[in-house]
Structure formats: C-alpha cells, structure tokens
Amino acid sequence: MSSSRPFVSGNPSEEEFTSGKGSPVTQSNIDVEIVASAASNEAGEAAFERRLMRRIDLRMLPLLGLLYSLALIDRTNLGVARIAGMGEDLELSVGTRYSLVSCVYFIPYILLELPSNVFLRNFGARNLLSFCVFAWGAVQLAMAFVPDWKYLALCRILLGAFEAGFFPALVFIITTWYKRHEVQKRLAAFYLISILTGGFSAILAYGFSRLAGKAGLNGWSWIFVIEGALTVLFGCVAWIFLPEFPDNNSFLTSAETKFVLQRIQEDRGDSLPDEVTLRKVLHHMADWKIWAYGIMFMCATIPAYAIGFFVTVILSGMGWNLEFALLLSAPPYVFAAFSVFVFAWLSDHYRSRAFFLAVQAVFVLIGFTITGFVQHPGWRYFGLFLGNGGSAGCIPGILAYSSNNIVSHSKRAVTTAIIISFGGLGGIIATMIFREKDFPRYIPGIWGTISCQVLLLILLGVLTLHFWCQNKSKRDSTQGGIVDLPYIL
C-alpha cells in the first residue's frame, strides 16, 4: 500500500485509506486480508501435504502389499498342495509329518528377525528386501521337485530363513514415513492387499494343480513352480522400485524429503536414525512392554495361521468336497479385508488403539466358539468370517499400537523384530494345536485359540492401564502441560 494514498476522514476510531481505484480500505479489512492470506497459505500447504502423502502411499503400499501377499501365499500353500496330491505322494499323513513340515519354517523365521532388522540400514532396505524375495522364490520353486517329505522340510527351513527379515522390515520402514495417527491405515492398506490376494490363492493354486501331467510334473508341483517363478520375478522388480527410509529415499526431491522429515519430527521427534549398538539393543529388550506386545501379537496370529493352514481342511471336514472347500475359503478373506480397513480407519480417526483391538479380539473369540461348538455347517462357516476378520484386524492394530508408543529408530527396529518373532511362535503353536488326529473338529486347537484371545485382552488391559497412569503422571508433573510425548491408548 503506497504512502502517497490520500488520507480520508471518517470514523475517529478507525483510520481509512483509499485504494488505487478509490475503494476505501480500513484497518479491519487489512486484518481480514492478512488472515485470508494466511489461510490460503495453510490451505496450499495442506493440499501439498495431501498430494505428497498420496504419492508416497502409491509408491510404497501397493508394492509392499503385493510382496507380502507372495510371502503369505508361499508359506501357507502347503494346505492346497497337500489336498492336490502332495500328501499322498510324500506320505505327509503319517504321524505328525504334516505338522512338522509346517512347523519347521518358523524356527529360522523367529531366530533371524531381530539381527535382520538391526542390520537393515547397513545392508540397505532395498538390497536386503529384494534379495529375500528372490531367494525365497527360488526355494519355493525347488519345492516342486522334492522326492520325499524330509527334503520338503529342509526347503521349509530355508523358506523361513529367507522370509525372516521381510515382514519386520516392511513394518519398520512404513512406521518411519508417517505420523502416529496415520500408521494403522497404512499398515492395514498393505496388509489387506495381502489378505485379498491370499484369500483367492487357494483357488488359483487349485487351478495350477489342474496342470497335472504337463512336463511330467504332478499337480502339486505346478503350484510351487508357478508361484515360485512369480516370486522370483517380483524379486527383480522389487530391487528397482522398493523404497528406502525417508531420510535416504531416492524418489522425492530434497524439499519434499525435508517436509516429510519435519512432520515426523513434530509428531514424535525421531525423524532421523540413531546409532544402533549392542548396548542399546539390550537396553530396549529390557522393556517389559515389548514382550507384552509380542505375546499379544502371538495370540492374534494363532487364529490367522490356523485358518491359513487349515481352512480348506476344516471346510472339507464340514462335508464339502474339494472344489467347494476351495471356493468357500475365499469369502472369509474378503470380509477380513473389509473389516481390517474399517477398524483401521476408526482407530486412526478416533486416535484410539486399545478399544478397537479389544472389539476385534472378541470377534475372534466368538467366531472360533461358533466354528468349534455349533453343529450346523453354515453357522460354523460364519464363525470363520468373524475369526478371520478379527485376527486379521488385530495384526496391523497391534503393530500400530506398539509403534505409536516408541521413540527412536533403534527401539523401533528391536521392537518390530521381537513382536513379529512372536508371530512366528504363533505359527508354531497353530501347527501344533491343530493336530491331524483331531480332524475334522480340531477341538483342542479351538480351545487353545479361544484361551489366547482371553490372554490378549488381559495384556491389552494391563498396557492400557499402565499408559493411562503414565499419561496422568506426566500431566500432573507439568501442571497440565506434557513435555514428553503422551502414550496413545
């Protein structure tokens, strides 16, 4: 505004000026313009933030979800391969062979997750993850040619070793890109992609098995050949497109990277990595809350693995033939994908983790009670919907709950690895409690799953009470102003 503009007399309490076109501009109008300009800047920044986060979502989540779906398919396709002829060819029904072959996968899976996550930055996220995908795809391919169940068990051990670092690394990377109240939707987004793909994997695998006799291979061998080859192919694609951590990514400009790091710093104060040392790792492992999260995650994965390994067997035990058992295995996964995203959106929107986790754990409890103890096959099938939906939702929910209450990259690496290691333990337990001799009702497995949901609810209550007390103590000690980050309940 030019100083040469003439002064015009008016309201004595207000200075009035005339614009170049003669229209009066008051001080209050100037204030309105300043506010409007600020609002415009804020709106522009908000629009920029939305566009940037959408771009990050599209770069990360579809690919990560697809890769994790390959991991789930490759670790759980034994059930379909078994009923497609592998059980007879390799004599897996003898004793506990099938449970043993299913179980040995988890031993290296559990043992290697922590060292893999701790050294993830040293190897480079893209290098390590793409190697893992390529390597376990090669092992999956080799499983098509095993001559007996012992070689199959060896391949399952190698499969567990190469998949060990994959899932915890994905969770670790995703949680470093987003604010605390954005995390669960993102974890759910990539997880539901894997749920949907995995839900139809049994039908696809059955289709592959119809190639029996081609090239002299059995039908179950074709399942491993095709799925293994696809995984190897995506391992090569992954090396080109997989994202790194936000501070060393290659697909954003420096200004965009700075913006992402700034919003993370403002939210929880750990945008940049801290050094990982043995002393830090041991210090983090001494935190009892990590182990509580891990046991909760184990309780959530037991029903998920039970359904993944045994859904077609359970359905065939209800009286349906092979084709119907395979077709009916997909709808519970479609429901689970819908349930996962709805609960993730509610949890992020209302900024509450524990309540929605509790609701989903109750879903599992009710669902497995119906499947185990109701006589009508239709109701038992309905129970699988509730059980699968609840357990699938608890998995990203627990990961979000734990990651929201962690500060520092080193603790995030340790916590994520330990929690997902307990998920591997859940897989072992699932293969042990759903025993061959308990077919078709698997009552001991049903009781074990129900008991684990009760344990999950107890631990969730203990953690929630602890966090509530800690937050209250912080508020009291600062007379209403919280200096440290509050825990998210």
Describe this structure in words.
This is High-affinity nicotinic acid transporter. It comes from Lentinula raphanica. It is a multi-pass membrane protein. Residues 1-12 have a biased composition (Polar residues). Helices cover 75% and strands 1% of the residues. The protein is mostly helical. The protein has a single domain, classed as Growth Hormone, Chain: A (Up-down Bundle). Strands 1-2 form a two-stranded antiparallel sheet. Residues 1-23 and 27-32 have low confidence and may be disordered.
Span between N and C termini? 52 Å
Question: Uncertain segments of ≥5 residues (pLDDT<50)?
Answer: 1-23, 27-32
CATH evolutionary superfamily = MFS general substrate transporter like domains
Share of helical residues:
over 70%
Protein name: High-affinity nicotinic acid transporter
Transmembrane segments: 60-78, 98-120, 127-145, 151-175, 187-208, 220-242, 290-318, 324-347, 354-375, 381-401, 413-434, 446-469
GO molecular function, one term: transmembrane transporter activity
Keywords: Membrane, Transmembrane, Transmembrane helix, Transport
Would you summarize the structure shown here?
This protein is an all-alpha fold. It has helices spanning 27-76, 78-89, 97-104, 106-118, 120-123, 125-142, 149-163, 166-177, 183-199, 201-209, 219-241, 254-268, 278-285, 288-317, 322-328, 331-349, 354-373, 377-404, 409-433, 443-477; strands spanning 16-18, 24-26. 75% of the residues lie in helices and 1% in strands.
